[in-house]
Amino acid sequence: MLSTVLVFVSTLMAAAVALDNGLMRTPPMGWLAWERFRCDIDCEHDPKNCISENLFTDMADRLSEDGWRELGYVYVNIDDCWASMQRDQHGRLQPDPKRFPGGIRRLSRYMHNRGLKLGIYGDMGTHTCGGYPGTPLSKIEIDAQTFSDWEVDMLKFDGCYSNATEQAQGYPQMSKALNATGRPIAYSCSWPAYQGGLPPKVNYSQLAEICNLWRNYGDIQDSWDSVLNIVDWFFDNQEVLIAVAGPGRWNDPDMLIIGDFGLSMDQSRTQMALWAIMAAPLFMSNDLRTISGGARSILQNKMAVRINQDPLGLQGRRILKEESGIEVFWRPLSNDASALVFFSRRTDMPYRYRTSLSKLNYTAGSYEVHDVFSERSVTLKDSTGFVVSVNPTGVVMWYVSAPVKPNRLQEFFKDARLRGAARGDLANVIPPVFL
Ligand SMILES: *[C@@H]1O[C@H](CO)[C@@H](O)[C@H](O)[C@H]1NC(C)=O
Ligand SMILES: *[C@@H]1O[C@H](CO)[C@@H](O)[C@H](O)[C@H]1NC(C)=O
Ligand SMILES: *[C@@H]1O[C@H](CO)[C@@H](O)[C@H](O)[C@H]1NC(C)=O
Fold it and tell me: Which of 50, 169, 296, 402 is a Cys-bridge partner for 43, taking CB atoms 3.0 to 4.6 Å apart?
């Protein structure tokens, strides 16, 4: 049944075309200012946290020195409230001179010198959401050229203060204008979020042709309620959304708030796991200068990042919604591997969920299973019943290998961890690891 789903998805994907700028063949990763730092412009009283060049160079230092860049977290993205209220005498946007004294060009050079990329923010309307100068239709070419002159690598184009008619003109026009600069600039479109995120108002085939990623839904806030609300919307609408995602074109459920104030460690693992299943962009919005070791280890989990960055770029799906409050998610990966997430919506105690791989449509024999957060591995036969213990609002996440060939299975029996297992009866192997 799963292979049927896979063929269906691939067929749809072949029909859709991605924006031809060669960028973001896997979901982009990096840091984005908005959720954590908003429109704090009070540099006099809050110099460490205000939207200023220092905030972005601080984050760049952390990304390049604390092991983030090597994992793929390379974008450092400015959001709203960077601009001066006035355009310059040539009609160009300019940064606030007090808060960005070196200008955006110096900031992009700072990023490039460290192997990072710079993203900037604009708005397809008269004003940005924060009331700064927008980019109405008449200013699209000049603003695209300005961003390119500054050697910016990505543009998030918001939609406040514009109507549906203007958006239908402006978003494609900006895509053309960015292309015309000759500089590859990744393009994030907030357009669908302003049109309810669903067809017929949103034409996802068109979006995939003009944008690299798009915000489908509302802004994330620093709370578990907000994460859950976003998760529900994306998986309730998965049939629409899965079909349009792929290399170079991604659905964006918004920033990671791991490391902020609203999520427990279990909830943080849940956000990381489900964003990986969704092939979502991984833009952290947190303070990398003071992040806890726990949050950092979740965001730097190599297997979770590897699943997110799988080169096939297929968005995963929810495959089960149990009455017990357990939900199971699945994402096909390259090399016939896959990822599974067991998520508990419960609020009582760790729930012992009993199932087997064959109940989850794995029917080709034995598989090597790697638990992403406990970092333990085991070989599991499709028919073997097992129990996973899932914490309230938490997850268990697995990377599941391609079916293990019988001759390779012999080698697994030589593994010390499995030596005690009765030959031919894998049932004994499983419980200690996952109970
Ligand atoms: C512009 O679009 C053309 C045609 O789709 C593509 O070949 C080219 O690489 C694009 N250039 C940039 C800078 O995005
Ligand atoms: C959208 O705004 C333009 C002004 O830029 C106006 O002429 C047009 O009537 C508006 N359209 C809708 C559908 O409100
Ligand atoms: C959606 O966009 C595609 C690609 O631009 C276009 O071919 C198609 O006609 C559009 N669909 C609708 C319903 O407008």
Answer: 50
What is the rounded distance in angstroms from the CA atom of residue 64 to the CA atom of residue 66?
A: 6
Q: What is the SS3 assignment for 383?
A: coil
Report CA(20)–ligand 1 centroid distance (Å). 5
pLDDT tens digit string along 177-230? 999 999 999 999 999 999 999 999 999 999 999 999 999 999 999 999 999 999
348 is catalytic: no
Site to substitute for ligand 3 among 206, 207, 214, most atoms within 8 A of C-beta: 206
Atom of ligand 2 nearest to the CA of 166: 1
Cα gap 152→340, rounded to integer Å: 37
Distance 151 CA to ligand 1 centre (A): 17
Residues linked to residue 132 through DSSP beta bridges, in sequence order: none
Separation of CA 426 and ligand 1 centre (Å): 53
Residue 308's nearest CA partner among 334, 342, 344, 288 is 334
Q: What angle do CA 292, 339, 293 make, to 5 degrees?
A: 10
Beta carbons within 10 angstroms of residue 254's beta carbon? 24
Q: Which domains does the chain show, CATH number per domain?
A: 16-308 (3.20.20.70), 317-400 (2.60.40.1180)
pLDDT of 17: 82
